[in-house]
Amino acid sequence: MGFSVFGLIVSIVVLAPNLLLLRFPPRGRNIVAPVPQPLGWVERAGQALCLVVPAITQPGAIVWWWVAPAAVALATYYGLWGRYLLAGRDQALLYASLWRVPVPMAVTPVVVFLSAAAWLGNPWIALAAVVLAAGHIPVALLTRRAIGLAASE
Question: What parts of the sequence cross the membrane (predicted)?
Answer without folding.
Answer: 62-80, 92-118, 124-143
